[in-house]
Write a structure and sequence with these properties.
binds zinc ion, TIM Barrel, alpha/beta, 16% strand, two-stranded antiparallel sheet
Length: 280
């Protein structure tokens, strides 16, 4: 199985590969820039090249960048909207150079103007991005818990964004087990998972799903609360996690942990737990 965790590339992308190996991961996620700010570390060409060679010899099968939380393409503030689309385009180009498979983006929060207005603004921003981007790195819109005025907690909203953009090939979907559960999708049973596969396939095409954030949830089904918990210690539980990773369709996705840890080495224990649950 392809499994990894959220690591830091602050000390260099090759260092993240060493960290991934030390926790038994063959994949990892990183923030493309400071999650609370906007400043990007300049990644020298040599580092990108080293990363691409090193990841092959280290057996890293999947790498995904996460856009910072400060990006909000659904905002009504022109400066923030502009900053979001410029930053996204820049990061897609930068990490396309590094051969990163995907970048994950939270669609945005409409801040009280309503989902329809928010979706129009997201579509405007993404139209600008895809008019100016060509590359292999695919953008994944993440399914959200529905906290506050977040857009993307229903597949109808996500479908509306894809439709507004005329279904670009460069755009896909990133799932998150905690977010789906919080949004009211029961992912703890095979029947529940089958229903979600059917729904996604009908509305968006399952082939667009690129990965899943594998997180347990502090709150219950349909809580709308985006609070990640460690694997097996939340409301999804060990049985729920086992059902997801052994499901014939979900089980093939790359999994990335974003659970609350003090130090990345703690991910190692959780990856061990997940691997032991794997029956496929
Ligand atoms: Zn996310």
């Amino acid at each position: 199985m392809i499994i990894g965790a959220h690591l830091s590339i602050a000390k260099g992308m090759p260092v993240a590969i060493d960290q991934a190996q030390s926790i038994g991961a063959n994949a990892f996620q990183f923030f493309t820039r400071n999650p609370r700010g906007g400043k990007a570390r300049d990644i020298p060409v040599e580092e990108m090249e080293e990363f691409q060679t090193y990841r092959i010899s280290a057996g890293i099968k999947y790498v995904v960048g996460h856009m910072p939380y400060t990006i909000n393409l659904a905002t009504n503030r022109p400066d923030i909207h502009r900053f979001g689309m410029v930053t996204l385009l820049e990061d897609l180009r930068r990490f396309n150079e590094a051969g990163v498979e995907h970048l994950v983006l939270h669609p945005g929060s409409h801040l009280g103007d309503g989902p329809e207005a928010g979706i129009v603004r997201i579509a405007e921003a993404l139209t600008y991005v895809f008019d100016n981007y060509q590359g292999q790195t695919r953008l994944l819109l993440e399914t959200m818990a529905g906290q506050g005025t977040e857009i993307g907690s229903s597949f109808d909203e996500l479908e509306a964004i894809f439709r507004a953009l005329d279904w670009p090939d460069e755009m896909g979907l990133g799932l998150d087990s905690c977010h789906l559960f919080a949004a009211g999708y029961d992912i703890t049973t095979d029947e529940g998972l089958d229903r979600i596969v059917d729904l996604i396939d009908k509305k968006l095409g399952w082939h667009r799903v690129g990965m899943m954030h594998l997180n347990d949830s502090k709150q219950g089904l349909g809580s709308g609360s985006d609070r990640h918990e460690k694997i097996g210690q939340g409301m999804i539980g060990l049985d729920g996690i086992a059902t997801i990773i052994n499901h014939p369709v979900f089980g093939d996705l790359p999994f990335v942990l974003e659970t609350p840890v003090k130090d990345y080495s703690e991910y190692g224990e959780e990856i061990q737990v997940v691997r032991q649950l794997r029956k496929l």
